[in-house]
Design brief:
The protein is of the alpha+beta class. It folds into four domains: 7-119, Beta Polymerase, domain 2, CATH 3.30.460.10; 123-210, Hydrophobic Seed Protein; 215-372, Orthogonal Bundle (Hypothetical protein af1432); 379-437. It is 54% helix and 9% strand. Strand 6 (102-104) and strand 7 (109-111) form a beta hairpin. Helix 13 packs across helix 19 (333-345), helix 18 (318-328) crosses helix 20 and helix 22 crosses helix 23. The longest helix is centred in the last third of the chain and has 22 residues, at 351-372. The protein is globular and about 80 Å long. The chain starts with 6 loop residues before the first helix and ends with a helix.
Length: 439
């Protein structure tokens, strides 16, 4: 077998062969090899039944269709051909023609019953069966089609293009299990061509099925002379400019969603979107919850949207900068700067944008200076905790009062870090209690 095959794949193929079974590499791995791209996943198919595969390997878990095998902490999927099913039939159930190719590494034979090699060479995204039936079997494939097309620079075969805009299929996509939709969409958002993929999804009419109604409403929304794009074009450009991390890509997608509900145009033509960052944060939180996104990711993306409009003035005091860092979250500041710079760059060149980028750079330098002083910026860095506060007050259990005290102490030490001393804070607690109990 070829030396370029991973050792674990060779081991699987040889073990099955020694037991009298055939085994082929298929799908994305073969497609990527044809494209001269290193495969990220190695999927295999064999004529052995799942129980037989499980008996040949340790740490193998069988299901109705095959086995998931773990070798040296890496997982491999081995599909089992069903009774009376041959390899051609199996490949014919692939999502796309360029994935309907298999390779026999022992015989060095490529199995291509559906024209997958030609699809790769011609850069065409087609299906081995009627696209309407392929997408009806699993509507998530519609999202995957868009992702593949932009990632591999493929043209849609006409029947595939038509099926992607089929209203009935889009309705089925909308009722797919939400987490499957989320996972595929998030894969799109971290890809090298996320901006083009999102535009393709919206153009195909899939936006409502993904809960992107507020984003779609940005199309043709004017923004005034500081912008070279409408709100939708600007959003796509910001996505294109930010790094390929999920949190910042999602924040780029939603950062201006609040401009629709806050859009105003005066009689003289002046356009404003006052408060769009807060309105956008609310829409972001609703969508992240709709997508059943993890809580920390939801909190991070929502915060980035809420704070993306940085209105720094050189006259800010050090305490103002500390309060700003606390509001943003010190672990999110660098990401927020990346988003804000991309937002300004997507305005297009202007004196206004140049001035604001200079202000951003100045704020970034000052933030680094403040962080180097290591001031207390969240409640975990207070010199006393809730148990000490309870001890000072002679309490045996906590309650809302303890939370109020900690919040007030935090505000005080952010304004003046020298107050963050255990004895000083204990004295402040004693003074605070009468006032806070009245609120």
């Amino acid at each position: 077998m070829h030396s370029w095959l991973p050792g674990n794949v060779v081991r699987i193929v040889q073990t099955l062969a020694e037991a009298g079974y055939q085994c082929w590499i298929y799908g994305g791995a073969v497609r990527d090899l044809l494209r001269k791209v290193p495969p990220s996943d190695w999927n295999l198919v064999t004529d052995a039944e799942a129980g037989a595969i499980e008996a040949l390997f340790d740490r193998a878990v069988a299901d109705d269709h095959g086995v998931t095998l773990t070798i040296y902490e890496s997982d491999y999927r081995i599909e089992s051909l069903g009774p009376g099913q041959d390899l051609d039939d199996f490949l014919g159930r692939s999502d796309f023609t360029l994935n309907a190719v298999a390779y026999d590494p022992r015989q060095d034979v490529l199995v291509d019953p559906h024209g997958g090699v030609a699809a790769v060479q011609m850069r065409v995204l087609s299906c081995p069966d009627d696209p309407l039936e392929v997408f009806d079997a699993d509507p998530i494939r519609m999202l995957r089609a868009i992702r593949f097309a932009v990632e591999m620079n493929l043209m849609f075969e006409p029947t595939v293009a038509a099926a992607l805009s089929d209203e009935g299929l889009i309705n089925k996509l909308q009722v797919c299990r939400r987490r499957r939709v989320r996972d595929e969409f998030f894969r799109i958002m971290v890809g090298a061509h996320a901006s083009e993929a999102v535009a393709g999804l919206v153009d195909a009419g899939m936006g409502p099925a993904l809960g992107l109604g507020p984003i779609m409403a940005l199309t043709d929304l004017p923004q005034g002379p500081k912008h070279i794009y409408d709100a939708w074009g600007h959003t796509l450009d910001v996505i294109r400019r930010v790094p390929g991390r999920l949190d910042i890509r999602l924040a780029a997608l939603w950062h201006d969603a609040g401009k629709v509900p806050t859009h105003k145009q005066d009689e003289d033509g002046t356009i404003t979107h006052y408060g769009h960052e807060e309105a956008g944060a609310d829409l972001t939180k609703q969508w992240m919850d709709y997508m059943q996104a993890p809580g920390l990711l939801t909190e991070t993306v929502t915060s980035l949207v809420a704070n993306h409009l940085i209105q720094y003035e050189p006259g800010w005091s050090s305490s103002t900068i500390r309060r700003w860092i606390r509001r943003v979250g010190k672990d999110r500041v660098s990401t927020l700067f990346e988003l804000a710079r991309a937002d300004l760059d997507a305005h297009g060149p202007s004196v206004w944008a140049t001035t604001h980028k200079a202000h951003l750079d100045e704020l970034a330098r000052r933030v680094e200076g403040v962080k180097a002083e290591a001031p207390p910026l969240d409640e975990t860095e207070l010199a006393i905790d809730g148990s000490v506060i309870m001890e000072v007050l002679g309490l045996t259990k906590g309650g809302p009062l303890i939370g109020k005290i900690k919040k007030t102490l935090m505000e005080m030490v952010v304004n003046d870090p020298k107050l963050n001393d255990p004895e000083v804070l204990k004295e402040i607690v004693i003074r605070l209690v009468p006032e806070l109990r009245e609120t």
